[in-house]
Amino acid sequence: MAVGIGPGTPELLTIQARRALETAEVIVGYRLYVRQISDIIAGQEVITTGMRGEVERCRRAIEAAAAGRTVAVVSSGDVGIYGMAGLLLELLEGEYRDNDLDLEVIPGITAASMAASVLGAPLMNDFVVLSLSDLMTPREKIQQRLQAVMPADLVCVLYNPQSRRRTSLFPEVVKQVIAERGPDTVVGLVKNAGRPDQEKWLGKVVDIPLSFIDMLTVVVVGNSTTDIVNGRMLSRRGYQLTGNDENR
Amino acid sequence: MAVGIGPGTPELLTIQARRALETAEVIVGYRLYVRQISDIIAGQEVITTGMRGEVERCRRAIEAAAAGRTVAVVSSGDVGIYGMAGLLLELLEGEYRDNDLDLEVIPGITAASMAASVLGAPLMNDFVVLSLSDLMTPREKIQQRLQAVMPADLVCVLYNPQSRRRTSLFPEVVKQVIAERGPDTVVGLVKNAGRPDQEKWLGKVVDIPLSFIDMLTVVVVGNSTTDIVNGRMLSRRGYQLTGNDENR
Hints:
The structure is a homodimer. Chain A is of the alpha/beta class. In chain A, the strands form 3 sheets. In chain A, strands 3-2-4-1-5 form a 5-stranded parallel β-sheet, sandwiched between helices. Chain A has a 5-stranded mixed β-sheet with strand order 7-8-11-9-10, with helices on both faces. A 3-stranded mixed β-sheet of chain A has the order 6-13-12. The termini of chain A are far apart. In chain A, 28% of the residues lie in helices and 23% in strands. The first copy, chain A, contains 7 helices and 13 strands. In chain A, helix 3 crosses helix 4. At the A-B interface, helix 1, helix 3, helix 4, strand 5 and helix 5 of A face helix 1, helix 3, helix 4, strand 5 and helix 5 of B.
């Protein structure tokens, strides 16, 4: 099973995901994420690896499953969105083809949903989710995607905006937003969304505090319908609110 | 509180959402969605309206909250994605400004996550979520967005692909996908995702069964990395799977 454990607090797990974790005999995941669910898992074997050990982690999970055990591979957020589900499917189709194992994918609350709920309601209409990490997607492709979506007036959710190593792309994106959507474009930032140390920032793109942003910050760039109302980020969906709504 | 109740079965609720529904004194929602959570709510007052009664529903919810009651407005999927959270914020900032009420937004599993988990792992990299409903977004704007994102090689999740009244836009989108991405582009369709009557279809864009598609079908259009492997839809993220991953 590939299990999305949500943003990081046990109460943001679905009931299905919680049950999956409770029934698994082996839990496999990135060290930090496994720590987040330590209240739920008890007595199971736990296999953790560090940040870049995705492939090794998935291989060990598949080998445990091939040995007849029920295995849950966890990803924070949704395991199907930049998570482990895809890598598991690749391996099951590739080097482990002969093992005839099945994979159940159990969705979770993705960071876009969580950050949006913290900010208000910025995803009321069409949106795009982009990762600025160039670890597995060439930087040119990320830039080409940004160029394509900016004029389309889509709200943009940006994952992995910058890391200690990678600091030049995000300031470029900020410049691009200012050029394409104007200096007053509303942007929301959420760090550690859903966790006890959650922080948020809401303001105009020209005022973004670059020092606030790290690998775990989710950036939501508003579109032409996005405003700040009462300290919340709101993309208007287009309801007619004048008069009664008898004819809706 | 605005509460996302997920795709429709109680086990896809988060623990937080479940608790919110249990503690609410009044539950407000579209009739069908309230029926989906009838096992959880018991004894609370329930206010339901039909399909197009969104504004009326939110006004009644706010009036109940202004009378001092704890109110949960429910949306299927994520209440913050094409859901009721935005409309509630608009009303609280507009005609109910003087009531000084607070809104808590509780996220849920959105249809994109759910459909993706049913299909395999199509959202492993950047993607866009678009609604083809022209009820509140002009058709020209939807078309302009599709034109912008197609060449950007983003996986596209389409909500509300067609309804009984609106049947011409989706076939146009199919033509556009064939022209931009080629006839072999992989597409997944999921109807009633997460519900007992769930159905899915997976194949090439040229073979899409148009009669399968209704208002509740989620369409996932693959990109250049998307394949069908073992009956699952997989967008490859770009892992290097040859040799060991010592250097990752």
